[in-house]
Sequence to fold (229 residues):
Amino acid sequence: MAGGNEVEQGAFGRDEPAVKVVLVGAGGHARVCLEALHDDPGHQVVGAVSGDGTGVDGLPVPVLGLDADLPAVVRTKGAERVFVAIGDNAARAALTSRCDSEGLLSTVAISRHAVVSPAAVIGGGSAVLPGAVVNAAARLGRGVIVNTNASVDHDCVVGDFVHVSPRAALCGGVRVGGGTFIGAGATVVPNVTIGARAVVSPGAVVMNDVPDGAVVSGNPARSHGRVGA
Fold:
C-alpha cells in the first residue's frame, strides 16, 4: 500500500488497532472492494448496508440494514469509517454526500495486488483494485474507482467520483473531470483533458480533449452526442 493517501490509516503491518469500517453497498462491486479492505490489516469491516437491506450471495460480512440506517449502524458497531462501494458514479457521489452530512468519514480501499506510487495522492473513499497501477505524482479525487488492471500514469489528475474501468489506461499528464466514466479497455493519450460527467466508451482511443458531458467512442475517439441526450 502506498503512502501519500488522503486517508492514511491502514498501512500494512502497523501495530495500531484495526479501524472499524461499515460498507455502503452489498453488490458485486462491494465484494471486490471488501476484499481490498480486507487486504489491509488496519481495516476491520464489521458489516454493510444496502438500498434494499440485502446483499449479493456469499458476501462475507453481514448486511445490517438499509442505507438510511447507516448512522445508527455506525454507532451500534462503534465504527470509525465508512466506505461507499457503489459502481455508479452519480449514486456513489450522492451516498458520499449523505455520509458527509452525517459527519461520517470515508476510508480508502487499496488492493495488495495494486501498485501505487508513494508520490501519488489518493482521495478518501477511492478504490484501487487488483492489478491497477497509480504512478508517480498522480492525484485521485474522492470516490474514484481505478478498477481491475487499469492504469493511471504519472502526473494525471483525476476528479471526484470518476470510474476508470478494467484495463483502461490514462497516459501521463491526463486530466479527467469529476463524474466521468472511462470504459473498459479505453486509452487516453498523454496530456489530454477530459471534461466532467463525460463518457469514454469501451475500447476508445482518446487523442483530443473531450468537453464536459460528451460521449466519445472509436479509434480515434469522436463525439457521439452528450450524456442524457
User: Anything to note?
Assistant: DSSP finds three helices and 23 strands in the chain. The longest helix spans residues 89-101. The first strand starts at residue 19 and ends at 24. The chain has two domains: 19-107, 110-218.
